[in-house]
Model the fold of this input.
Amino acid sequence: MDLNLTPNITDPDGFYARLIAAHEGLSDEESAALNARLILVLANQIGNAEILEKALAAAQMRKS
Amino acid sequence: MLDDRYSLAFKLYPYERSADQDAAQPVRHPVVVVGGGPIGIATALDLGQQGIPVLVLDDHEGIGMGSRAICFAKRTLEIADRYGCGTPMVEKGVVWNLGKVFHEDRQIYDFNLLPEAGHKYPAFINLQQPYFERFMVERVRELQATGTPIEIRGKNRLDAIEVKDDHVVLDIMTPEGPYRIEADWLIGCDGASSPLRGMLGLDFEGRVFQDSFLIADIRMHNDDFPTERWFWFEPTHGAGASTLLHKQPDDVWRVDFQIGWNVDRKEEMKEANIRRRLDAFLGEGLGYDIVWSSIYTFQCRRMKQFRHGRILFAGDSAHQVSPFGARGANSGIQDVDNLGWKLGLVLKGQAPESLMDSYDVERCFAADENILNSSRSTDFITPKSKISHTFRNAVLQLAEKHAFARPLVNSGRLSLPCVYDNGPLNGEDALPEAPARTRPGAPCPDAPLADGFLLDRLGGDFVLLTVDADAPEHLDVGGIALRRVKLSVNDDTTGALAERYLGGATSAVLLIRPDQHVAARWAAFDESAVRRAVGHACGKE
Done:
């Protein structure tokens, strides 16, 4: 299965603003922890191991 | 006593003594506009062309120096076209479509605005504000010559105001001393630091952004930069945390450096220091003259209400945004577009005074949309926390490789006219198969016809637009003459009309407001429905 790397987020500006707002007032540790939890929640939504591996590769800026 | 606060680019309305200064009793005017900037002059053009006498007061004798607003959007040009001065703006302006985004020094992607075809006006032009204003004042002069009741009084400063139930009393200072007039309606177009707002003790709350930007407008000796918008995030030349390069007419380029919050303005404004930044950015040895420079900070804020009885605020005096997205001057012109016809109807006795409340509702809604968009752009360009900066740079890194991240890159969302969804004047939407872009509340998109453009046909009064539908040529609704614009698929040379107004429908009847926003739409003409919608659009219920 392919990782979707074309635009797919509805209302990108709204999502981005919501994401930054979620971190407002958090310490660095708290922000890192929020990000970790968010990644795990999103990974569960994706589920598929092949796609998750490709997502890891994209984030690491390497070829999958 | 009446010293200039700034120097002039064009001296267009020198002080002249008015008969009002020698009148025994204060002379009453139907409409007085405070401030002769782009919004004040547009207000005069709108009302004057409706035959309503309008007096503009300005504490200077012409247009201030400095390019300031440089991006004028399609909707602004369409409105200027209705006032009769859109053509010279486009002829002078620079049209651009291509943008490039850089991170550090690498180009991460480019984009084409790909403007939709079939519009009389381009998506945007770049034009120095003094030209924009001059074309409007020149249009005022043309209209005055044919008897349009517009008057501009230079070096007339509003010093005090007394608010009565149905008028205001204005104390005005001139080089020859003070005098007093009265106005049934007063429009405040006196800018972000509005003295009028101060005199009335009105609020102007919002968010301060802790950053400053240095603008340098330069004329290149060797003009080999393309007509594109280039935006750098974190360029390594270090002259700014972000930098924007944009072309204007006369071989002038706008360079905009983000220079941080704690800066010594006086030191930064020295030519040697500006040149140091420019040389770091452009590379040594490039010849240029500095045409204008300025340091600005900004806030995103608005008044709680734009209407205070017989006093209305428009433009920067009512709302202020960051410059990203060109939503300052453009939204002010849309304020005028909204205000003009409503005040015209009220003054002619064709609509109740309460119609002016809809100006407040619709334009506050628009201001909130503009503030939201420009705040988001600012937050992306100047991240205010470590995590915000981390996300911003992650977006930029991914955008270089993957298209999905590009819609998240936000260096300004260019101004589009507001759709007044759920607006108080909207009538029924009885044409569900038609496109959402022409739903009630939406501004009419232009479309090419066999002999010109649709918006030219709509003009500035109430129109019943019919596409392959029957309707009477004229309909009088409570003194308002409804004019029919009759179109058929045969007029639709490109298919744009059907695409924008019909969608899945085979016929359409649209009630269009004088500001060219859709009020209601149906599949066929129904006289009682149309009468109801016109009444509703005039605030009669």
